[in-house]
Structures are given as C-alpha cells and as structure tokens.
Amino acid sequence: MIENENLRLLADEAGIEPRYWDILGNLHEMTADAARSVLAALGLPANSEADVAASLAALRAETWCDPLPPVLVARESEPIAVPLRFPSLGGPKTIRWSVRLENGEVRTGECDAFSLAVAATGECRGTTMELRNLALAPMPLGYHEFVLDGVGDMLLIVAPSRCHDLPEGRHWGLAAQLYALNTQSNWGIGDFSDLKTLVEFASDRGAATIGLNPLHALFLDTPEQASPYSPSSRLFHNPLYLDVTAIPDFAECGEARSLVVAPQTVHALAALRAGRDVQYKPVADLKMAMLERLHRGFAVEHVARNTPRGRAYVDYVERSGTGLQNLAMHQVLTERYGTHDWTRWPTALRDCDATALAGLRTDHSQRIDFFCYLQWLCEEQLAGAARNAQARGMAVGLYTDLAVSVDAASADHWMNQGLFAAGLRIGAPPDPFNARGQEWGVVPLNPRKLRATRYGHFIALLRANMRHAGALRIDHVMGWQRLFLIPSGAPAASGAYLRYPLDDLLGIAALESRRNRCVIIGEDLGTVPEGFRERMAAANVFSTRVFYFERENGRYRAPRDYPPSAAVTAATHDLPTLRGFWSGDDIAAKEAIRAVTSQEAAQARQTRSEEKASLLHALAEEGLLPNGSDRADADWTADLGCAVQVYLARTPSRLLLIQLDDLADELHQANLPGSTTEYPNWRRRLSRTLAELQLDSGTKEGLAAVSFARGNG
C-alpha cells in the first residue's frame, strides 16, 4: 500500500490502479516504488515530494488549461455535450462555434456563455477555471472538426453504439497459422497463395471464414525472432508470406526464372519443404535475394516507364504516407548498423524526424524503395486472397488478428516514440498457468499521449488491419479498459494496472467496424474485469470462448449454455491441440523445459485425467461419444476430435473456429507460453499437406458433420 497521500493521489489521477486481485482472488497492493516507476515511464516524475507536486500540477493543467479537449467521442443519435473550460472571471461572453462535417457540410451556432451552467471547477496555474458544457444536437457518424471561434478546435468523433454484426445464422471456419501451411509449392513457409488454396478448400465445405495469426511485419534481420505477437509494425505485413512465383514481375524476370530452377535453388527448396519446422533464416535469405532481383526489374520496366502497374505502386506509396517511408528507413538503418534495436544506433538517428536522416533518405532511396515494394506486394497478394474469399461466397471472409502491441525495438515505436511508455512492458498478473506472472516484452501506448494526438495511431491500426478482413480479433481486448504494466526489468508480479479510455476506444472501433464491414472479436481470456464482457456484448464485440475453459464445478458447459455473441473454439495457439490435450503433450513439454517441477507435472496429469473423464461425460450427454472412447485412459482417435467439434457446433454461438492443427490431428501446439528458445514456438509446420487434407475422407466427413450441426446443410 502507498502511504504517501500525494503520491497515491498522483497515481490515481494518472490512471494507475492501487491494487488488483489475481485470478485466484489474491489481493496485490501496489508499492510506492512500483508507482514511481510506472509514473516516470508515463512522463510524470515522482522521486521526491517536489516531483510529485510538479507532476500533479502538470497532469491537472492538461485537463484545465485548454478551453477544449483535443478530441471528443460522442454517440450516434445522442445529444453532444462539448466541455468548455474558461477562467471563472473571464472568457468569452458569447460563444460562437462551427462544426465542419467530414462531408464538407458546415453547421454553426452561438449562445450566451453565462447561460451554461457550471458543471465543475478546477485550477490552471493558480487561476480558477469553470467547466461548462455546450449542448449540440446529434451529429452524423464520422470524424468532424469542431471550432470555437477565437479559441481553438478539436476532433469530434461520432460513433455508433454497436459494431458491425455477423450475417444471420451460425457460421464456422478454419483457424490457421499461415506460416505452418504445408504445400509442395511453397518455399518452406506458408504463403498468400497457400491462403487462397485454403480459402477454396474451406469454402467448398461451407466455411464462412479463415482465421489467421497476426500478419504483422517482423524483423527481417532476425527472421528467427518469429513471434507474430512481438512485431516491428502492426501497420504493415511480413514479406516472408509472399509467394515469389505468383508476383507478376517474376514472369517478366528471366534472371529470377532461371535461378529458381537452378540445381542449388531446387536443392534448397526441397530441404525447406521437407523440414518439420519453418527454417526462417534460409527462407528469408532465399526469398529476399529473389525479391531484390524482381524489384530491380520492376523499377526499370514499370516505374521508370510509368506503366499502369508502375503507377499503381506509386499511388500505393503516396497513400501509405510517412508510415511506410519510416518502416523502410528503419529497415535500411537496421542493415547499416547491424541491429534493429534503434536505441543502439547513433544518437542522432534515434529520432525518426531527425534532420540527420534527410541525407540518408536520399543516399539510400533505392533500398527504401525496395522495402516499400515488398509492402505493396503483400498488399496485392493479401487483397487477392480476400477477393477470392468474397468471390467464393464466404460470409465473413478473412479473420485477421491485431496483436496487443509491438516490440520495444520496433519500427512503430521508433517512429512514434512520443506515444509509447518506453520504460514499461505489457504482461499479465500471476494466474494458474504462470504463478510468477508474465512479461510479454511489448511496449504499451501511453493513454494520455494517445488522447492528446486525437487517437490517430489507434484509428490507423484499425483501418490497416480491417482493410481486407471480414472479422478482426483484438488480442487481449481487456487492454482497451486496462493493461497490466511492468517496469522494464522488474518481476512480473510487481506490475500494476493502468486504465485506458474504454468508451473512446470502443466508440472508434465501432465506427471503423461499421465502415469496413468488419466484425470485432475480443480475446477476453485470463483476468477479465468485472462487467467487462457485458460492456463488450452491449457494443456487439464478440467474446472468445475456449472449450477447455468452459467448465463449471468440474463439468464442461453444455452446448446450449454458450452465449450467442461469441466465437467458440476448442483451443488456441497458446494451448494444446485436442490430441495434445488428451495425451498430456503440453505437460510433458513444460516438464522438459523445466517450466514445472516433476511434482507439479504429476499433479497436472492427475487433473488432466479428471478433465478427460469430464470431457467424455459431456460428449456422452450429447450422444456424441464415439464407440470405444468411454475411458479416460483410452487411446486418442480422430473420431473423438470430430465429436468435440460437433459438440461446439451445436452451441448457439454465432461463430465456431476449428483449429487447422486439430483438423490435421497434430500433437504439438504452436506456442508454449513461458518458453522462448526452449520450445519451437511459431515454427511447427503441419505434418500433413493441404492436398492430403483435401483428399482425406475423414476430414471431409468431419467438416460435413460440423456444417450440418451449424445448420448449413
């Protein structure tokens, strides 16, 4: 507990929660040291009483010294109250205002300032200030500019109360790790052409969607750093997912065509395709060398000659603005200095707006153009996969994933340093899966700075990730209300929760969801604040329900008891596959890397035996128990896996996702939380090719049973 009253007050006004209860109901009080560390990272020094007083004054000045807030998020069809703050003995007597709607229409008005009631008072640098609310009639949806004559302006965002909805009916789809797709045409890593193949396979069987891991840009200098949840940029894509041979420029490049059939390339590709795991470094070396050749030809044949294809690229670069240029510059500097960690670059280059970069941008313009070209190709191929899903009648289409944040050394952090709290890391408090808590290595956005910049970065993230998606998964959606933040280098359990502007973020998400016709699915697993799921449901943000966790008093929840506004699945990338769950493969993996002791592993196996017995009982209750599968010590069968999927298909939940790993009857899970290099996280390729799955009669019958249970045929 913090005993210093002023420090406690500063922490509260900064949005830091003084205590939290973990998932087991244990109370954790924030210490004074933890509060000071979090405050310092938020730009609010608190090492002394003088620091605390100054930071408290600065924080209050942000609220009371500006006549208008930087942004106001209102709701459709509701009156709007614009907060105005003026000195109690001054300020304009007549208020004249205008709203320039995003369609160009202008609305104006005026009123007597003293006719507005004083709602609250505060202080700005020794001056007493009064808050008066100016009432406006409801405005149309959109991003509008509110101007107070002679005073200033703010962004007025009018949002719907609910997000875009799924089409009528109960839908299902396949969830895949794109890198894991196994075909004899890819280069040892799943690519966008494989995605099109998967779309065709799934749509032919009645699927409405394909769920994907985050496709965010990772670090090209360290391709083995493969977690899609620790990206370099959430605004752009990973070019290792490109199908090189499907790029139009490949057909025009004789050098590339000759190289791909050369004996050394054929041998390298055969080795990559035969590997059990994705070999990221060889894959990257091979693809990048080929893409460099394609870019050289493209620059000469299309950009220089101003062909339609060349103009399409130039248009893309112009539309993408400084974000794309800065991503490319980050990659150029990574090559120049041998590290993507920009805190180790020369001091003059650690600020992406530095004048020192101007000359480098000119000197390295061709290399910058190459990295922009890679992103354009990603845009082309991902858009093609999305169009294919639409053309084949998939009700939802692609279901993409927005990671909770970015790596501290990321391009996004480098180009937006003022938005992030560099001294903090996002994580999770202690829970049954990790008694010490978790530190995820990603850096949080500073909510005060996010609001001060009118939520521009948040809006850009939603647009970039919804552009080709019919559904968007929000990783750790509780972060819209609060994030568990840990001072960099400190134990995870010493963290604290920081509040975020949920109503504003939810309103913006609803607006972008409706405009992009994109359903929002919140990953709301782990420690969920009281009332949070109800708030999400009211805004039509779908919940995530995982079969393993849906138990009450030791029994699995019956299908009829699942909520309709949910995406239901047997497992996720962080959990064992169905076969792995049955065999205890996840427990063995944790024991092998010493994440659990032998005693803890033995207890986990005993618990798992009870869970398996409960699973069998639940299937029997639904009349789904396969013959010969009535004992918890029986061998795993594919029929048992199919029964679980049909069980979930019977729920009223509007969306069911079947993990492709389960469809392929994989043993090992994609990611083992709590491990880094000890386990092959984000590397495992499917042991069966897509062609084999397409031809497998058991797969066809299982998906037909799921589709029938969903009411789709």
Question: Can you give a write-up of this model?
Answer:
Helix content is 39%, strand content 19%. It is an alpha/beta fold. An eight-stranded parallel beta sheet has the order 23-20-15-12-11-28-27-24. Strands 3-10-9-5-6 form a five-stranded mixed beta sheet. It has a four-stranded antiparallel beta sheet with strand order 18-17-21-22. A hairpin with a 2-residue loop joins β7 (118-124) and β8 (127-136). The protein is globular, with a radius of gyration of 27 Å.
Short structural description:
With 713 residues, the chain is α/β, with parallel strands linked by helices. The protein has 23 helices and 28 strands. The longest helix is centred in the middle third of the chain and has 30 residues.
Give the topology.
Blueprint: H1 5-13, E1 19-21, E2 27-29, H2 32-41, H3 49-64, E3 71-75, E4 80-87, E5 94-100, E6 106-112, E7 118-124, E8 127-136, E9 142-148, E10 152-159, E11 171-176, H4 192-203, E12 209-212, E13 216-217, E14 233-237, H5 248-252, H6 254-260, H7 263-274, H8 280-303, H9 308-337, H10 356-363, H11 365-391, E15 397-402, E16 406-407, H12 411-415, E17 424-428, E18 438-439, E19 442-443, H13 447-452, H14 456-466, E20 471-474, E21 482-487, E22 496-499, H15 502-515, E23 519-522, H16 532-538, E24 543-546, E25 551-552, E26 555-556, E27 566-569, H17 578-583, H18 585-592, H19 598-621, H20 638-649, E28 655-659, H21 660-663, H22 690-695, H23 697-709
Parallel strand pairs: 3-10, 11-12, 11-28, 12-15, 15-20, 20-23, 24-27, 27-28
Antiparallel strand pairs: 1-2, 4-8, 5-6, 5-9, 7-8, 9-10, 13-14, 16-19, 17-18, 17-21, 21-22, 25-26
Helix pairs in contact: 1-2, 1-3, 4-11, 8-9, 9-11, 14-15, 18-19, 20-23
